[in-house]
Amino acid sequence: MRIDIVTLFPAMFEGFVNSSIIKRAIENNYVEVNIVDLREYTTNKHKKVDDTPYGGGAGMVLTCQPVFDCVKALRKEDTKVLMMTPQGKTYKQQTAYEFAKMTHIIILCGHYEGFDERIRTLVDYEVSLGDYVLTGGETASMVIADSIIRLIDGVIEKESHENDSFSNGLLEYPQYTKPRVYEGLEVPEVLCNGNHKEIAIWKHKESLRKTYFKRPDLLENYSLSEQEAKWIEEFKNKE
Ligand code: ADE
């Protein structure tokens, strides 16, 4: 997979591509991450990439020319173009799975007041992180790229993301590590007894418990098994 991130602030990505799992994924050729400086594509002799909005209003708007030329230069047959914008569809784990199947993604990061509306004709997906406004799409694009890269086969252990929160519609069960008792706080006995069947049932129930108490909205679209419905009754009685 190749991910091209188009930005006016390439320096913001230095830490992202040079740290931890993302760095290793790049070094081991699971993914190619290309940070593209939009300013390189402007034909303006002062390297200007934005202008004042028609009809008036605050701030500056990214102009069409550099973005159109940049996408034209980068696009291949199987490319999908993503635009980071608070006007996009709210990003979810299910979308990360969908994007992780793609072979080439271009992510457009906006800055200032946003993009000239005509730039949207180049775009396949408008993506928002949530209902708030960032100073630019750069931090948002790192979130998107990170969530995609970790799903590429081989980047992390498959089991790690199969148990992720949201992967099965529920939050992930609680995790513990050594020591077994810390300042009087104990690890649940069942996790230490080596009975894998019991452990699997406990994880499933605790995953449901977390979801019920922290994100009940996730259960609205979740079809409960008979056992899960019984557990929910049990949680309700303890509320
Ligand atoms: N750019 C500015 N705000 C954003 C948001 N909430 N999501 C994605 N891109 C953005």
The CATH topology of the largest domain is given as Alpha/beta knot
**Highest-level CATH class of the largest domain:** Alpha Beta
Mean pLDDT across every amino acid position: 96
Main sheet attributes: strand count, strand direction, barrel closure: 5 strands, parallel
The name of the CATH architecture of the largest domain is: 3-Layer(aba) Sandwich
Number of contiguous helices: 8
Bound molecules: adenine
Listing every helix as H and every strand as E from the N terminus to the C terminus, the arrangement reads EHHEEEHEHEEHHEEHH
Pick out the low-confidence regions. none
Spatial gap, N to C terminus:
47 Å
Radius of gyration: 22 Å
In terms of DSSP E residues, the strand content is: 15-25%
Give the overall silhouette.
elongated
Number of domains: 2
Strand order of the largest sheet: 2-1-6-5-7
Specify the helix fraction band: 25-40%
CATH superfamily of the largest domain: SPOUT methyltransferase, trefoil knot domain
Q: How many β-strand stretches?
A: 9
Structural class: alpha/beta
Description:
- The chain is an alpha/beta fold.
- It contains eight helices and nine strands.
- The strands form three sheets. Strands 2-1-6-5-7 form a five-stranded parallel β-sheet.
